[in-house]
Amino acid sequence: MTVEQLRKAREESANVAYLTFTRHITQDKIGLFCFFEGKDSPYYYPRIKEKFSGNYYPISCSGKNKVLKVYELIDGHREYDIYRKAFFVDRDFDFPLLNPKIYETPCYSIENLYTSSNVFKEILKSEFSFAETDEDFLRCLQVYTDLQKDFHEAITLFNAWYACLIYLRNTTQQQTGVHLEDSFPREFITISLAGIMIKYDILAIKAKYPNALDVADDVLQQKIGDFNTQNKGQVFRGKYELDFMLKMINCLIEDSKTTKAFISKPIKYNTTNTQAISQFSQYAETPTELTEYLKKVIN
């Protein structure tokens, strides 16, 4: 798809969201109009309803750039200032927006808010019915914490490479030439309760993504160094973080039915990547920035 085609697709989707908003207000709908990248409403909804008792209207814009385009369309009309509006986007590897009218996650995306050891603790207690004093609980939490650290080490190179691509895209207006799946490439890593096995290097990355923009080695190494000073669970690609947590949950469930090395009793439980945002929303973290933003758009 060419740059011009991408621009037109973005504008068309943004126009659909914009028209949805205008149809609501022509029907005298009063409440809070929330514009999301995609299926983020299950995370934001309970946090919004804690602060706002009025009607809630989620509007999906099909992407970050389209949320920003809808914001431009609406912000250009002063007659819309009387309506409560909220715009939500993920930070990703982009430059910060620094626009107080748009909420931008302080981490890579909302998925990162689901994957800390504290969130995992709550999942173990509520979904697996463990007490914090249970040996099973302690073993599960320890293996998750240890392997998450190893996982971050294993995917640092890939995240750094992709972050460099995004920087090039944002500074040169070239397309990255890469489309990523929600899961980390299976051929690059093996995840099990026994450990994390790394099976890739920069040459393997280039072979898998031959159309990607070229990243200079010194630039890549600088980005790796930057990431090594940061909280990787917050700054790394969120979909990979969530997928790792779900893989760990499934591995532990399987362990409970077979070797019982970590869980001594069989656990009957099921979740998928598509269900997780809704299923675990109550356990996910709520940034103070989000709370402050909601206060501003509601009042």
Any overview of this molecule?
The chain is built from eleven helices and six strands. The protein is of the alpha/beta class. The protein folds into two domains: 3-89, no CATH class; 112-279, no CATH class. The strands form two sheets. It has a four-stranded parallel β-sheet with strand order 2-1-3-4, with helices on both faces. Strands 5-6 form a two-stranded antiparallel ribbon. Strand 5 and strand 6 form a beta hairpin. Helix 1 (3-26) crosses helix 3 (64-75) and helix 5 (135-172) packs antiparallel against helix 9. It starts with a helix and ends with a helix.
* Neighbour order of strands in the largest sheet: 2-1-3-4
Number of domains: 2
What is the number of E strands? 6
Q: Strand pairing plus helix content: what structural class?
A: alpha/beta
- For the termini, the CA-CA separation is 42 Å
Number of helices: 11
**Main β-sheet, in a few words?**
4 strands, parallel
Residue-averaged pLDDT:
93
- Could you spell the SSE succession in H and E letters? HEHEHEEHHEEHHHHHH
Radius of gyration: 21 Å
Model regions low in confidence, pLDDT < 50 over at least 5 residues: 5-10
Helix-strand blueprint:
Elements: H1 3-26, E1 32-36, H2 41-51, E2 56-60, H3 64-75, E3 84-89, E4 102-104, H4 117-127, H5 135-172, E5 189-192, E6 195-198, H6 202-208, H7 217-227, H8 232-235, H9 238-257, H10 273-279, H11 288-298
Helix pairs in contact: 1-3, 4-5, 5-7, 5-9
Short description:
The protein has helices at 3-26, 41-51, 64-75, 117-127, 135-172, 202-208, 217-227, 232-235, 238-257, 273-279, 288-298, and strands at residues 32-36, 56-60, 84-89, 102-104, 189-192, 195-198.
